[in-house]
Amino acid sequence: MLLNSAKRYGAVAVTLHWLTAAAIIGMLVLGKYMTDLADIDQSKFPLYQLHKSIGITILVLSVGRLLWRLANVVPPLPAGIPAWQRWGAHGSHILLYVLIIAIPLSGWAQVSSNPIGIPTIWFGQFEIPPFPGLPVSVPFTHFMREVHENLGNLMILLLLVHVGAALKHHFWDRDTVLRRMLPFTNVE
Question: Are 18 and 61 in contact (CB under 8 A)?
């Protein structure tokens, strides 16, 4: 089933969720790795290009994912979940959507404001134009770098909470919260 139902997420939502999750986790690992490299390391430039290409892809996937979510029914949480957990789930999902869009935008803004002007070539295929209307200055570039890094760190914390909550629901509460987002599972 492609569309969401009252019991589970459909194939489109599940696919977008897991593609985005894998890309984000990979990007967080890559981002931490490449920023720790020495400036003279020859692998740094291609890693940054890869990071920027995946970031733009995540941005496009995330916008598609958000539009899909807004256009489809969201399966309700199981009835026995306390109100504070419902609020927490709702709030954390909003923050996840904000971050999966804000992190790539902040990275794009950082690159676009850099006076050095190194272009972003999407997987070696075509150039991504600079983010429109931004000042080109070293102080703004440094500011956007801090924003990008801090949002990434917030994403790491939020992912730990998100995964922890899903595992808690699956193994402790034994409800359908996790299974309704897993591919090839049956939700009764």
Answer: no
Q: What are all long-range contacts of 179-185, with beta carbons under 8 Å and residues at least 24 apart?
A: 179/8, 180/7, 180/8, 180/9, 180/75, 181/8, 181/9, 181/13, 181/14, 181/17, 182/14, 183/11, 183/14, 183/15, 183/18, 185/8
CA dist., res. 21 & res. 144, Å (int): 23
The answer to whether the Cα torsion of 111, 112, 114, 120 is positive or negative is positive
- Which residue is it, tokens 């034994």? 174
Here the tokens at position 97 are 């959507």
Owner of token pair 């996840």: 96
Element (DSSP H or E) covering residue 135: none
Q: Is the pTM of this model over 0.90?
A: yes
For 9-37, what is each residue's pLDDT tens digit?
A: 999 999 999 999 999 999 999 999 998 88
